[in-house]
Design a protein that fits this description.
The chain is built from eleven helices and 14 strands. With about 350 residues, the protein is an alpha/beta fold. It has two domains: about 5-150 and about 320-355, Rossmann fold (3-Layer(aba) Sandwich), CATH 3.40.50; about 155-315, Dihydrodipicolinate Reductase, domain 2, CATH 3.30.360.10. The strands form two sheets. A seven-stranded parallel beta sheet has the order 3-2-1-4-5-7-6, sandwiched between helices. A seven-stranded mixed beta sheet has the order 9-10-8-11-14-13-12. Helix 2 links the parallel strand 4 and strand 5. It binds NADP nicotinamide-adenine-dinucleotide phosphate.
Length: about 350
């Protein structure tokens, strides 16, 4: 494809972890051209290697100060913290481009669902109903027609994909589900904090925001919409002293008599055609190494020998399937590109630490 016919893309928040990951992925995407990359705290044009040394000489444009709505791109990725995104997204939406927002600001169709979980009033509530939740495995048809795509949260992605077929089919109970998940520290963004300081984090491991993490209502809300029934669950996130990756352990009771083998077959049928969901054979368990730097969610099914509960052990890379990779997947679906374009070969071959070390 020649440069003139490539899709022009802009990345807002290019100096952050998910923005940097997105640049790396898009540089290897044959159908796009990066035409603008911005952040809020630069005063004049800055070369990319100021922020991402590994990208020295590889990005044709400098990082400039963000001016919402400018740039003339056909696809704009907004990779800013929540709260900031709702101030930026409307200006792009008005231009008619496809906007893919990686923050939580447009993940709830009813902004009232954010109340108590996110600070402040929504400043663009009218756009929430229009946004499509960009989890292609569940909402691919809607993503195809969307001009505003709300990219899912990192924890919700693997949790929802692990639970969806079992809940949708009625094989698993819709209440009493427990999600325990541990994330690498890039999930917290690049802003320095005391608990993210190396001596605090290294060789340490603990749960945080127990039972009150902001991704809890997102998981509940999306599953409720997808399975068309109320879903009740608890969620305990943990901080891992690693750069990237999320490992999930999820417990759900059976709603009816079904063998693990039959439940597995149901998952196999649900995800057989999905390029980025890998269902492990019974008896095998994913690891973070298996998904590091890739757009895969790896899912395995087990059964507790005493309680009979189903246990999912799943893994994803928070920066790829949990953020930038899923955003590229959404762009591919929306723009009619092959869904795996720019994702599969890179996921297998690239060094995942190149933008985060
Ligand atoms: N990290 C993950 O694993 C992950 C996963 C899924 C979703 N997300 C979501 O993706 C978004 C970005 O996360 P992140 O971890 O990449 O954050 P981050 O590392 O903190 O980076 C945030 C980026 O946004 C820029 N920014 C902040 N305010 C801005 C504004 N008003 N205008 C323009 N740019 C602005 C920052 O630049 P300055 O420093 O110059 O302000 C920086 O480039 C968040 O909403 C997060 O919740 C993150």
């Amino acid at each position: 494809m020649n440069a003139a016919s490539r899709c022009k893309v802009k990345i807002v928040g290019a100096t952050g972890y998910s923005g940097g990951e997105l640049i790396s992925l898009l540089l290897n995407h044959p159908r796009v051209e990066i035409t603008a990359i911005t952040a809020s705290s630069v005063t004049g044009p800055e070369p990319i290697h100021t922020f991402w040394p590994a990208l020295r000489g590889m990005v044709p444009v400098p990082v400039t100060k963000e001016v919402p709505g400018e740039g003339g791109a056909e696809v704009v990725f907004v990779c800013t913290p929540h709260g900031a995104a709702m101030e930026i997204v409307p200006a792009y939406h008005q231009t008619g481009c496809v906007t893919i927002d990686l923050s939580a600001d447009f993940r709830f169709n009813d902004p009232a669902e954010r109340t108590g979980w996110y600070e402040g009033e929504h400043t663009a509530p009218g756009l929430c109903a229009e946004a499509v939740y960009g989890l292609p495995e569940l909402f691919r048809g809607k993503v195809r027609g969307a001009n505003l795509i709300a990219n899912p949260g990192c924890y919700p992605t693997g949790a929802i994909l692990s639970l969806y077929p079992g809940l949708k089919s009625g094989a698993l109970k819709h209440e009493g589900v427990h999600i325990s998940a541990a994330s690498g520290v890039t999930g917290a963004g690049k802003k320095p904090k005391q608990n993210l300081h190396h001596p605090e984090l290294d060789q340490n491991f603990y749960a945080y925001r127990i039972g009150k993490h902001q991704h809890l209502p997102e998981i509940v809300s999306v599953l409720r919409r997808a399975v068309e029934k109320p879903v009740s669950l608890s969620f305990v996130p943990h901080l891992l002293p690693l750069q990237r990756g999320i490992f999930y352990t999820i417990f759900a009771a059976k709603a009816k008599e079904i063998s693990l083998k039959d439940l597995w077959a149901l998952y196999d049928e649900a995800y057989r055609g999905e390029p980025f969901v890998r269902l492990y054979p019974l008896g095998e368990t994913p690891t973070l190494h298996a998904v590091r730097g890739s757009n895969f969610v790896d899912i395995s099914l087990h059964q507790d020998a005493v309680t009979g509960e189903v246990i999912f052990a799943s893994a994803e890379d928070n920066l790829v399937k949990g953020a930038a990779g899923q955003a590229v997947q959404n762009m591919n679906v929306r723009m009619g590109f092959p869904e795996t374009e720019g994702l599969l070969p890179i996921a297998m071959q690239r060094e995942p630490d190149c933008v985060c070390s």
